[in-house]
Write a structure and sequence with these properties.
- It comes from Microvirga ossetica.
- Pfam families: Response_reg (PF00072).
- Keywords: Phosphoprotein, Plasmid.
- The chain is α/β, with parallel strands linked by helices and 131 residues long.
- The chain has a single domain, classed as Response regulator (Rossmann fold, 3-Layer(aba) Sandwich).
- 43% of the residues lie in helices and 20% in strands.
- A five-stranded parallel β-sheet has the order 2-1-3-4-5, with helices on both faces.
- Helix 3 links the parallel strand 3 and strand 4.
- The two termini are 22 Å apart.
- The N terminus is likely disordered.
């Protein structure tokens, strides 16, 4: 089990249907000491994710069969309040507004600097540790 620089282990779930982006995000998170669980689809995530053990979710807005925003709404309806960081290659005011309304803690436009992702995840992890 890897230990993050925050002193305790934090696990981040990543959902993105772009294999290259999924690997890149996973690698960046692991280099910074975060454990990761990755999924290439919303369906795979819904079938296999361990939400109770996660610190946050990094979620692509534009997934193939179910949008990341709809996935977030479904999680909320199911009683899961896991913090979400949305990532997207197709940025628009409407998408940004929908992501904020769905309750994201950060919204990153691809390609984004890895330090912006790490800052967002660390912020969530620090807030999680305070509870």
């Amino acid at each position: 089990m890897r230990s993050s620089t925050l002193g305790t282990s934090h696990r981040v779930i990543v959902v993105d249907d772009d294999p290259g982006m999924l690997r890149a995000v996973q690698r960046v998170l692991q280099v910074h000491g975060f454990e990761t669980e990755v999924f290439s689809s919303a369906e795979g995530f819904l079938e296999g994710a361990h939400l109770g053990e996660a610190t946050c979710l990094v979620l692509d807005v534009h997934l193939q069969h179910m949008s990341g925003i709809e996935l977030r709404r479904q999680l909320t309806r199911s009683g899961h309040s896991l913090p979400v960081i949305f990532i997207t290659a197709v940025d628009s005011e409407a998408t940004r507004k929908a992501a904020l309304e769905a309750g994201c803690v950060a919204y990153l436009h691809k390609p984004f600097p890895s330090d912006r992702l790490i800052e967002a995840v660390k912020s969530v992890a620090q807030n999680d540790r305070k509870r």
